[in-house]
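Supplementary Text 2. Reproducibility record for the structural model of the 105-residue chain.

All settings were left at their defaults, and a single model was retained for analysis rather than an ensemble. We include the record here because the model underlies the residue-level annotations in Supplementary Table 4.
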Amino acid sequence: MTRRRAPMAKAKRLTQARVDILWEQAQEHVKSGKPNLARQKMLSARKIAQKTRTKMPRHISRRICKTCGTILVPGDTCRVRVRHNRSKHVVVTCLDCGAVKRYYI
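Retained model, structure tokens:
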């Protein structure tokens, strides 16, 4: 039983390291004005995470549009609003595809 767990734990560590590297590269591409290349990096990071059945880290998954894969930069590629209607939440709207996501506080 321990033989099967050791390679899986190692694979998950490698996956997290690779996702972090791809995230840093994608951020560099966004800063240099290449959003399509950044989108491709994050789509490949998502595929890698899905293949090993690991979650994307929260600080990364909340900054990627789940519909189109665009990296969400407030004011540039997304609109951020704080709402107090039923309960406090932040509404993030992707300006590329129009997808709306709510994050409750």
